[in-house]
Amino acid sequence: MRTIQLSASQIVSQVLAKGRNLNQTLEETLNMKPAWQAAERGAIQDLSYGTLRFYGQLKAVLELLLHKRLEDERIGYLLLVALYQLQYSKAPQHTVVDQAVNAARTLQPQVGGLVNAILRNFLRQQASLLEQVASNREARFNHPLWWITELNAQYGELGTTILAAGNLHPPMTLRVNRRWGSTADYQFRLAEQGMSATVVESDALRLDKPVNVDKLPGFFSGWVSVQDAGAQYAALLLDVQSGMRVLDVCAAPGGKTAHILEIAEVEMVAVDKDAKRLQRVGENLQRLGLNARLLSGDAAKPSTWWDDKKFDRILADVPCSASGVVSRHPDIKWLRRREDIAPFAQQQLEILRAVWPLLKADGKLLYATCSVFKQENEQLVTRFLAEHNDARKLPIVLPGDGGGQLLPNEQHDGFFYALLHKAS
Fold first, then answer.
1. Catalytic residue positions?
2. CA angle, corner 382, sides to 378 and 386, nearest 5?
3. Domains of the chain
4. CA 421, 317, 206: angle at the middle one, nearest 5?
5. pLDDT for position 2
6. Model confidence pTM above 0.85
7. Gap between the Cα atoms of 162 and 283, Å rounded
């Protein structure tokens, strides 16, 4: 456990102190330790994600326990990980403390006693400490203060519900490939393997207990993919029909591209600025037995990749703050800044303006983000419609009746969708 605690604390440090992406940092760490077993890898992931998920509370508690600033910040991150374990894991308390002390001594031999005292003080005063930090809004909601303020201003009391959803463990949801069978068919296959799942949408099954993909029947043969239920609305809302020409910009890693191809026989063009991530689209399509034309290019500059043939449907799943998927990516809420939102909105508007001329008359464009901030969603679409007399927003139906805003909950992430029709 000592190695696990140290590795997790180093990952958390890289994210919080250096602004690095959690997934990438975790992957790099695990790749350096090929001999680690699956259980060790899973434990490091859990500690890293959990510490960042509840960082607001853990940080506030640690500040109460410390009488002065730690000279070595590595000890601070190690203490955060240990506090997460003591508060949220089922690991024996004495084991967590002993291993943290040993881990601290590998960093600085003289701090073992301090780490021991801090963690045992937490165990003695746990209820009182948690009560004290509850008045701290960042500690209470485990989001930065600006984020809390923004959501409360935009959603009122519902903002608290959104914040709580951001601290949930995300579900593992599957998308069943229609070309292989129905959700009921695959649900039966799962049951045969001792796995239970609930149908949550036409192609979506939520597993009661997450598993590695190699345990999923037919995964490598293309029967099923892992995709959040909220993300699966994109292909359904786009209203694709066989024979259409369809464009997916900002397509990587390709889940929505693949879903469209599973629904209908279309001529698909998938574009992404990141050539490495575009390669992942190709790998996903290959596993599923699907085909698309993959182009590396900037969605905001179609002249560099477009062949002048217009599209019947366009999916613009644009870069965004990712504020709707923080349960899945807890680093996002601590890395984002309020001033990041306006540049995202400007980039989104530029992409919409750029790809709109590529749409045929009477065609449809689906604008999508995984954000809950209205500057990137409702407000941006309103700006675009004010500029384009040939664009009309079509009504869509989503759970919660949020006018295109799908709020995060225990069943899915948060997304925004706006379906735009081009006048003929």
1. 370
2. 175
3. 2-142 (1.10.940.10), 173-226 (3.30.70.1170), 233-422 (3.40.50.150)
4. 110
5. 66
6. yes
7. 34
